[in-house]
Amino acid sequence: MTNGQDNLLPIANVGRIMKDGLPPQAKISKRAKETIQECATEFISFVTGEASERCRRERRKTVNGDDVCHAMRSLGLDHYADAMHRYLQRYREGEELAASLNSSSSAAAAAAAAGSRGGGAIQIDVRAELSIFRSGNNQGRPNN
Amino acid sequence: MAAAAVADEVTEAMEQVEGEREEADAVADEAAEVMEQAEGEREEAIDAVAGEAGEVMKEVVEGEREEANAMADEADEAMEPEGEREEEADAVADEATEPMEQVEGEGEDGDAAAQRPALPLGRVKRIIRVDRDIKKVTNEAALLIAAATELFVGSLAAGAHRAASRRGRRAVRAVHVRAAAREHRPTADFLLDCLPAAEEAAPARAAAAGPSRGGGRGEAKPLPRGTRRIDAFFQKTT
Protein backbone atom coordinates (compact mmCIF):
# COMPACT_ATOMS: atom_id res chain seq x y z
CA MET A 1 0.00 0.00 0.00
CA THR A 2 1.36 3.38 -0.93
CA ASN A 3 1.97 6.14 1.52
CA GLY A 4 -0.77 8.28 -0.01
CA GLN A 5 -3.27 5.47 0.48
CA ASP A 6 -2.29 5.15 4.16
CA ASN A 7 -4.05 8.42 4.91
CA LEU A 8 -7.28 7.37 3.21
CA LEU A 9 -9.98 5.00 4.44
CA PRO A 10 -9.95 1.52 2.85
CA ILE A 11 -11.86 1.68 -0.43
CA ALA A 12 -13.42 -1.76 0.12
CA ASN A 13 -15.04 -0.59 3.35
CA VAL A 14 -16.21 2.66 1.75
CA GLY A 15 -17.72 0.71 -1.15
CA ARG A 16 -19.51 -1.62 1.27
CA ILE A 17 -21.05 1.29 3.18
CA MET A 18 -22.17 2.86 -0.10
CA LYS A 19 -23.77 -0.40 -1.24
CA ASP A 20 -25.61 -0.71 2.08
CA GLY A 21 -27.18 2.70 1.52
CA LEU A 22 -28.25 2.12 -2.09
CA PRO A 23 -30.80 -0.18 -3.75
CA PRO A 24 -29.37 -3.54 -4.87
CA GLN A 25 -29.60 -2.80 -8.61
CA ALA A 26 -27.54 0.41 -8.30
CA LYS A 27 -23.99 0.35 -9.66
CA ILE A 28 -21.11 2.45 -8.35
CA SER A 29 -18.14 3.42 -10.48
CA LYS A 30 -14.60 3.10 -9.13
CA ARG A 31 -14.06 6.84 -9.54
CA ALA A 32 -17.18 7.55 -7.43
CA LYS A 33 -15.82 5.30 -4.68
CA GLU A 34 -12.47 7.09 -4.80
CA THR A 35 -14.21 10.48 -4.66
CA ILE A 36 -16.26 9.47 -1.62
CA GLN A 37 -13.13 7.97 -0.06
CA GLU A 38 -11.45 11.38 -0.34
CA CYS A 39 -14.58 13.11 0.98
CA ALA A 40 -14.72 10.78 4.00
CA THR A 41 -11.07 11.45 4.84
CA GLU A 42 -11.68 15.17 4.50
CA PHE A 43 -14.76 14.86 6.74
CA ILE A 44 -12.68 13.20 9.48
CA SER A 45 -10.11 16.00 9.31
CA PHE A 46 -12.89 18.61 9.30
CA VAL A 47 -14.59 17.27 12.44
CA THR A 48 -11.42 16.47 14.39
CA GLY A 49 -9.98 19.89 13.54
CA GLU A 50 -13.01 21.55 15.13
CA ALA A 51 -12.91 19.19 18.14
CA SER A 52 -9.19 19.87 18.70
CA GLU A 53 -9.86 23.60 18.44
CA ARG A 54 -12.30 23.27 21.32
CA CYS A 55 -9.71 21.31 23.31
CA ARG A 56 -7.12 24.00 22.63
CA ARG A 57 -9.49 26.72 23.84
CA GLU A 58 -10.14 24.78 27.04
CA ARG A 59 -6.42 23.95 27.41
CA ARG A 60 -6.88 20.20 27.24
CA LYS A 61 -4.68 17.76 25.37
CA THR A 62 -7.07 14.83 24.84
CA VAL A 63 -10.01 14.89 22.43
CA ASN A 64 -12.97 12.96 23.87
CA GLY A 65 -16.44 11.97 22.65
CA ASP A 66 -18.15 15.11 23.97
CA ASP A 67 -15.72 17.26 21.99
CA VAL A 68 -16.65 15.39 18.81
CA CYS A 69 -20.39 15.84 19.45
CA HIS A 70 -19.88 19.53 20.21
CA ALA A 71 -17.77 19.95 17.06
CA MET A 72 -20.51 18.43 14.91
CA ARG A 73 -23.12 20.71 16.44
CA SER A 74 -20.99 23.80 15.93
CA LEU A 75 -20.34 22.81 12.29
CA GLY A 76 -24.09 22.62 11.63
CA LEU A 77 -24.22 18.81 11.50
CA ASP A 78 -27.03 18.61 14.04
CA HIS A 79 -28.44 15.29 12.79
CA TYR A 80 -25.03 13.68 13.09
CA ALA A 81 -24.56 15.20 16.55
CA ASP A 82 -27.89 13.79 17.78
CA ALA A 83 -27.11 10.31 16.45
CA MET A 84 -23.60 10.44 17.91
CA HIS A 85 -24.91 11.62 21.29
CA ARG A 86 -27.20 8.57 21.46
CA TYR A 87 -24.30 6.40 20.32
CA LEU A 88 -22.01 7.84 23.00
CA GLN A 89 -24.57 7.34 25.77
CA ARG A 90 -25.11 3.72 24.82
CA TYR A 91 -21.37 3.15 24.50
CA ARG A 92 -20.73 4.55 27.99
CA GLU A 93 -23.59 2.54 29.48
CA GLY A 94 -22.09 -0.57 27.90
CA GLU A 95 -18.65 0.24 29.26
CA GLU A 96 -20.03 0.80 32.77
CA LEU A 97 -21.97 -2.45 32.60
CA ALA A 98 -18.90 -4.35 31.43
CA ALA A 99 -16.82 -2.78 34.19
CA SER A 100 -19.37 -3.66 36.89
CA LEU A 101 -19.68 -7.24 35.62
CA ASN A 102 -15.94 -7.76 35.48
CA SER A 103 -14.99 -6.03 38.74
CA SER A 104 -15.80 -9.19 40.75
CA SER A 105 -12.68 -11.18 39.85
CA SER A 106 -9.28 -9.69 39.08
CA ALA A 107 -8.49 -12.12 36.25
CA ALA A 108 -11.77 -11.35 34.52
CA ALA A 109 -11.16 -7.63 35.05
CA ALA A 110 -7.75 -7.92 33.40
CA ALA A 111 -9.27 -9.75 30.44
CA ALA A 112 -12.00 -7.09 30.17
CA ALA A 113 -9.39 -4.34 30.27
CA ALA A 114 -7.52 -6.01 27.44
CA GLY A 115 -10.79 -6.31 25.51
CA SER A 116 -11.78 -2.69 26.09
CA ARG A 117 -8.35 -1.49 24.95
CA GLY A 118 -8.92 -3.40 21.74
CA GLY A 119 -12.11 -1.51 20.93
CA GLY A 120 -14.67 -1.71 23.73
CA ALA A 121 -16.47 -4.59 25.39
CA ILE A 122 -19.93 -3.69 24.14
CA GLN A 123 -20.29 -2.20 20.69
CA ILE A 124 -23.17 -0.26 19.20
CA ASP A 125 -24.95 -1.12 15.96
CA VAL A 126 -24.06 1.74 13.63
CA ARG A 127 -26.48 0.51 10.97
CA ALA A 128 -29.39 0.98 13.36
CA GLU A 129 -28.27 4.56 13.96
CA LEU A 130 -27.94 5.03 10.21
CA SER A 131 -31.55 3.90 9.70
CA ILE A 132 -32.74 6.29 12.45
CA PHE A 133 -30.69 9.03 10.82
CA ARG A 134 -32.18 8.31 7.39
CA SER A 135 -35.72 8.23 8.74
CA GLY A 136 -35.29 11.96 9.51
CA ASN A 137 -34.73 12.33 5.75
CA ASN A 138 -32.94 15.64 6.24
CA GLN A 139 -29.35 14.80 5.48
CA GLY A 140 -29.43 16.05 1.90
CA ARG A 141 -31.27 19.29 2.61
CA PRO A 142 -29.95 22.68 3.65
CA ASN A 143 -29.49 22.97 7.35
CA ASN A 144 -30.04 26.69 7.71
CA MET B 1 -127.99 -37.46 12.13
CA ALA B 2 -126.12 -39.64 9.74
CA ALA B 3 -124.16 -36.62 8.51
CA ALA B 4 -123.24 -35.71 12.09
CA ALA B 5 -122.07 -39.26 12.75
CA VAL B 6 -119.95 -39.20 9.59
CA ALA B 7 -118.45 -35.86 10.61
CA ASP B 8 -117.58 -37.25 14.06
CA GLU B 9 -115.90 -40.27 12.51
CA VAL B 10 -113.94 -38.04 10.17
CA THR B 11 -112.73 -35.82 13.03
CA GLU B 12 -111.77 -38.89 15.08
CA ALA B 13 -109.84 -40.26 12.12
CA MET B 14 -108.12 -36.89 11.68
CA GLU B 15 -107.20 -36.76 15.39
CA GLN B 16 -105.89 -40.31 15.20
CA VAL B 17 -103.73 -39.45 12.18
CA GLU B 18 -102.36 -36.36 13.95
CA GLY B 19 -101.62 -38.43 17.05
CA GLU B 20 -99.73 -40.96 14.97
CA ARG B 21 -97.82 -38.15 13.25
CA GLU B 22 -96.85 -36.66 16.63
CA GLU B 23 -95.68 -40.08 17.80
CA ALA B 24 -93.63 -40.46 14.63
CA ASP B 25 -92.10 -36.99 15.21
CA ALA B 26 -91.27 -37.93 18.80
CA VAL B 27 -89.60 -41.13 17.61
CA ALA B 28 -87.62 -39.14 15.01
CA ASP B 29 -86.53 -36.64 17.68
CA GLU B 30 -85.39 -39.46 19.93
CA ALA B 31 -83.48 -41.01 17.06
CA ALA B 32 -81.82 -37.66 16.31
CA GLU B 33 -80.90 -37.25 19.98
CA VAL B 34 -79.41 -40.73 20.03
CA MET B 35 -77.43 -39.94 16.88
CA GLU B 36 -76.14 -36.67 18.34
CA GLN B 37 -75.19 -38.40 21.55
CA ALA B 38 -73.33 -41.07 19.62
CA GLU B 39 -71.46 -38.42 17.61
CA GLY B 40 -70.58 -36.51 20.79
CA GLU B 41 -69.27 -39.68 22.40
CA ARG B 42 -67.23 -40.46 19.28
CA GLU B 43 -65.71 -36.94 19.28
CA GLU B 44 -64.93 -37.18 22.99
CA ALA B 45 -63.30 -40.54 22.40
CA ILE B 46 -61.23 -39.13 19.52
CA ASP B 47 -60.19 -36.08 21.59
CA ALA B 48 -59.30 -38.27 24.52
CA VAL B 49 -57.20 -40.56 22.35
CA ALA B 50 -55.51 -37.60 20.65
CA GLY B 51 -54.89 -35.91 23.99
CA GLU B 52 -53.39 -39.06 25.44
CA ALA B 53 -51.23 -39.49 22.35
CA GLY B 54 -50.12 -35.85 22.59
CA GLU B 55 -49.30 -36.21 26.27
CA VAL B 56 -47.36 -39.38 25.56
CA MET B 57 -45.46 -37.58 22.78
CA LYS B 58 -44.78 -34.60 25.05
CA GLU B 59 -43.55 -36.86 27.80
CA VAL B 60 -41.28 -38.68 25.36
CA VAL B 61 -39.92 -35.42 23.88
CA GLU B 62 -39.45 -33.83 27.30
CA GLY B 63 -37.75 -36.93 28.56
CA GLU B 64 -35.40 -36.93 25.59
CA ARG B 65 -34.75 -33.21 26.00
CA GLU B 66 -33.98 -33.65 29.69
CA GLU B 67 -31.61 -36.49 28.86
CA ALA B 68 -29.94 -34.37 26.18
CA ASN B 69 -29.62 -31.43 28.60
CA ALA B 70 -28.15 -33.69 31.24
CA MET B 71 -25.63 -35.03 28.73
CA ALA B 72 -24.79 -31.49 27.59
CA ASP B 73 -24.29 -30.39 31.20
CA GLU B 74 -21.98 -33.33 31.80
CA ALA B 75 -20.04 -32.47 28.64
CA ASP B 76 -19.79 -28.81 29.73
CA GLU B 77 -18.53 -29.83 33.15
CA ALA B 78 -15.96 -32.07 31.54
CA MET B 79 -14.89 -29.28 29.15
CA GLU B 80 -14.69 -26.43 31.72
CA PRO B 81 -10.92 -26.54 32.32
CA GLU B 82 -10.33 -26.50 28.57
CA GLY B 83 -12.64 -23.49 28.19
CA GLU B 84 -10.72 -21.60 30.86
CA ARG B 85 -7.50 -22.40 29.05
CA GLU B 86 -8.98 -21.05 25.79
CA GLU B 87 -10.07 -17.82 27.49
CA GLU B 88 -6.57 -17.31 28.87
CA ALA B 89 -5.11 -17.93 25.42
CA ASP B 90 -7.55 -15.40 23.92
CA ALA B 91 -6.58 -12.79 26.50
CA VAL B 92 -2.89 -13.34 25.76
CA ALA B 93 -3.59 -13.10 22.03
CA ASP B 94 -5.50 -9.83 22.56
CA GLU B 95 -2.58 -8.37 24.49
CA ALA B 96 -0.16 -9.52 21.81
CA THR B 97 -2.19 -8.08 18.92
CA GLU B 98 -3.03 -4.81 20.70
CA PRO B 99 -0.21 -2.75 19.12
CA MET B 100 -1.11 -3.97 15.64
CA GLU B 101 -3.70 -1.76 13.99
CA GLN B 102 -6.53 -3.37 12.10
CA VAL B 103 -6.35 -2.22 8.49
CA GLU B 104 -9.34 -3.60 6.67
CA GLY B 105 -11.77 -4.20 9.52
CA GLU B 106 -12.55 -7.68 8.19
CA GLY B 107 -12.02 -11.23 9.39
CA GLU B 108 -14.43 -10.85 12.30
CA ASP B 109 -17.41 -13.00 13.26
CA GLY B 110 -20.73 -12.08 11.65
CA ASP B 111 -22.40 -10.74 14.79
CA ALA B 112 -19.33 -8.88 15.98
CA ALA B 113 -18.81 -7.33 12.57
CA ALA B 114 -22.43 -6.17 12.47
CA GLN B 115 -21.98 -4.47 15.83
CA ARG B 116 -18.77 -2.57 14.98
CA PRO B 117 -18.38 0.45 12.73
CA ALA B 118 -17.63 -0.65 9.19
CA LEU B 119 -14.51 1.54 9.15
CA PRO B 120 -11.31 0.36 10.85
CA LEU B 121 -10.49 2.38 13.97
CA GLY B 122 -6.75 2.08 13.37
CA ARG B 123 -7.01 3.86 10.04
CA VAL B 124 -9.37 6.48 11.46
CA LYS B 125 -6.87 7.22 14.24
CA ARG B 126 -4.07 7.49 11.70
CA ILE B 127 -6.07 10.05 9.69
CA ILE B 128 -6.79 11.97 12.90
CA ARG B 129 -3.09 12.02 13.78
CA VAL B 130 -2.25 13.70 10.46
CA ASP B 131 -3.30 16.92 12.21
CA ARG B 132 -0.23 17.88 14.26
CA ASP B 133 -2.26 19.92 16.76
CA ILE B 134 -4.06 16.84 18.07
CA LYS B 135 -2.03 15.27 20.87
CA LYS B 136 -4.30 12.45 22.09
CA VAL B 137 -7.65 11.01 21.05
CA THR B 138 -9.72 8.76 23.30
CA ASN B 139 -11.04 5.47 21.99
CA GLU B 140 -14.64 6.68 22.24
CA ALA B 141 -13.82 9.80 20.19
CA ALA B 142 -12.29 7.65 17.44
CA LEU B 143 -15.31 5.35 17.58
CA LEU B 144 -17.69 8.32 17.27
CA ILE B 145 -15.76 9.78 14.35
CA ALA B 146 -15.78 6.39 12.59
CA ALA B 147 -19.54 6.10 13.11
CA ALA B 148 -20.16 9.69 11.96
CA THR B 149 -18.02 9.07 8.87
CA GLU B 150 -20.10 5.99 8.13
CA LEU B 151 -23.27 8.08 8.35
CA PHE B 152 -21.67 10.71 6.15
CA VAL B 153 -20.60 8.19 3.49
CA GLY B 154 -24.08 6.63 3.55
CA SER B 155 -25.84 9.97 3.15
CA LEU B 156 -23.44 11.14 0.43
CA ALA B 157 -23.95 7.87 -1.47
CA ALA B 158 -27.73 8.26 -1.17
CA GLY B 159 -27.47 11.85 -2.46
CA ALA B 160 -25.28 10.72 -5.36
CA HIS B 161 -27.79 8.00 -6.23
CA ARG B 162 -30.60 10.57 -6.21
CA ALA B 163 -28.56 12.80 -8.52
CA ALA B 164 -27.89 9.84 -10.83
CA SER B 165 -31.56 8.81 -10.97
CA ARG B 166 -32.58 12.42 -11.68
CA ARG B 167 -30.36 12.28 -14.76
CA GLY B 168 -31.74 8.87 -15.70
CA ARG B 169 -28.51 6.99 -14.92
CA ARG B 170 -28.33 3.69 -13.08
CA ALA B 171 -24.62 3.88 -12.27
CA VAL B 172 -23.40 6.37 -9.67
CA ARG B 173 -20.42 8.31 -11.02
CA ALA B 174 -18.03 10.92 -9.65
CA VAL B 175 -20.11 13.72 -11.22
CA HIS B 176 -23.11 12.59 -9.18
CA VAL B 177 -21.00 12.53 -6.02
CA ARG B 178 -19.99 16.13 -6.73
CA ALA B 179 -23.64 17.08 -7.18
CA ALA B 180 -24.50 15.39 -3.86
CA ALA B 181 -21.60 17.16 -2.14
CA ARG B 182 -22.88 20.48 -3.47
CA GLU B 183 -26.35 19.73 -2.05
CA HIS B 184 -25.06 18.54 1.33
CA ARG B 185 -25.21 22.03 2.75
CA PRO B 186 -23.22 21.95 6.04
CA THR B 187 -20.28 20.15 4.47
CA ALA B 188 -20.47 21.66 0.97
CA ASP B 189 -17.86 24.35 1.71
CA PHE B 190 -15.00 22.07 2.70
CA LEU B 191 -16.00 19.27 0.30
CA LEU B 192 -15.99 21.46 -2.78
CA ASP B 193 -12.48 22.64 -1.86
CA CYS B 194 -11.17 19.09 -1.89
CA LEU B 195 -13.09 17.99 -5.02
CA PRO B 196 -12.15 19.25 -8.48
CA ALA B 197 -15.09 20.99 -10.11
CA ALA B 198 -16.74 19.22 -13.04
CA GLU B 199 -16.03 22.23 -15.26
CA GLU B 200 -12.30 22.00 -14.49
CA ALA B 201 -12.23 18.24 -14.89
CA ALA B 202 -13.86 18.21 -18.34
CA PRO B 203 -11.24 20.32 -20.21
CA ALA B 204 -8.44 18.39 -18.54
CA ARG B 205 -10.00 15.13 -19.74
CA ALA B 206 -10.43 16.57 -23.25
CA ALA B 207 -6.80 17.71 -23.31
CA ALA B 208 -5.65 14.27 -22.22
CA ALA B 209 -7.79 12.60 -24.89
CA GLY B 210 -6.76 15.06 -27.64
CA PRO B 211 -3.27 13.78 -28.56
CA SER B 212 -4.34 10.15 -28.51
CA ARG B 213 -7.11 10.69 -31.04
CA GLY B 214 -4.91 12.73 -33.36
CA GLY B 215 -7.21 13.25 -36.33
CA GLY B 216 -10.14 14.74 -34.45
CA ARG B 217 -11.48 17.89 -36.09
CA GLY B 218 -11.42 20.64 -33.49
CA GLU B 219 -11.74 24.38 -33.84
CA ALA B 220 -9.29 25.94 -36.35
CA LYS B 221 -6.41 28.01 -34.99
CA PRO B 222 -6.71 31.76 -35.55
CA LEU B 223 -4.78 32.81 -38.66
CA PRO B 224 -1.85 35.21 -38.48
CA ARG B 225 -2.61 38.81 -39.38
CA GLY B 226 -2.57 39.62 -43.11
CA THR B 227 -3.30 36.10 -44.33
CA ARG B 228 -6.47 34.80 -45.93
CA ARG B 229 -7.95 31.33 -46.05
CA ILE B 230 -7.73 29.64 -49.44
CA ASP B 231 -11.49 29.13 -49.70
CA ALA B 232 -11.88 32.93 -49.78
CA PHE B 233 -10.15 32.85 -53.19
CA PHE B 234 -12.93 30.69 -54.65
CA GLN B 235 -15.82 32.74 -53.31
CA LYS B 236 -17.77 34.87 -55.79
CA THR B 237 -17.31 38.57 -55.47
CA THR B 238 -20.07 40.62 -57.02
UniProtKB/TrEMBL annotation, chain A:
Q: Please tell me whether the keyword Membrane is annotated for this protein.
A: no
Transcription factor CBF/NF-Y/archaeal histone domain sequence ranges? 9-72
Keyword Transcription regulation included in the entry's annotation: yes
Q: Which UniProt keywords apply?
A: DNA-binding, Transcription, Transcription regulation
Q: Output one GO MF annotation.
A: DNA-binding transcription activator activity, RNA polymerase II-specific
Q: Name one GO cellular component term.
A: CCAAT-binding factor complex
Q: Name one Pfam family in it.
A: CBFD_NFYB_HMF
For this chain, the family text in UniProt reads: Belongs to the NFYB/HAP3 subunit family.
Name of this chain's protein: Os01g0935100 protein
UniProtKB/TrEMBL annotation, chain B:
Q: What segment(s) does the record annotate as region Disordered?
A: 1-24, 63-113, 203-238
Write down any Gene Ontology CC term: nucleus
Instruction: Show the coiled coil region(s).
Output: none
**What are the recorded Gene Ontology BP terms?**
regulation of DNA-templated transcription
Main location class: nucleus
Descriptive protein name: Transcription factor CBF/NF-Y/archaeal histone domain-containing protein
* Location within or outside the cell: Nucleus
MF term (GO), any: protein heterodimerization activity
PANTHER family on file: CHROMATIN ACCESSIBILITY COMPLEX PROTEIN 1, HISTONE-LIKE TRANSCRIPTION FACTOR CCAAT-RELATED
InterPro entries per record: CBFA_NFYB_domain, Histone-fold, Transcr_DNA_Rep_Reg
Transcription factor CBF/NF-Y/archaeal histone domain: from which residue to which, for each copy? 119-180
Q: Which UniProt keywords apply?
A: Nucleus
Source species of the chain: Oryza rufipogon (Brownbeard rice)
Q: Does the keyword Cytoplasm apply?
A: no
Acidic residues compositional bias, start-end: 9-24, 73-111
Pfam families xref list: CBFD_NFYB_HMF
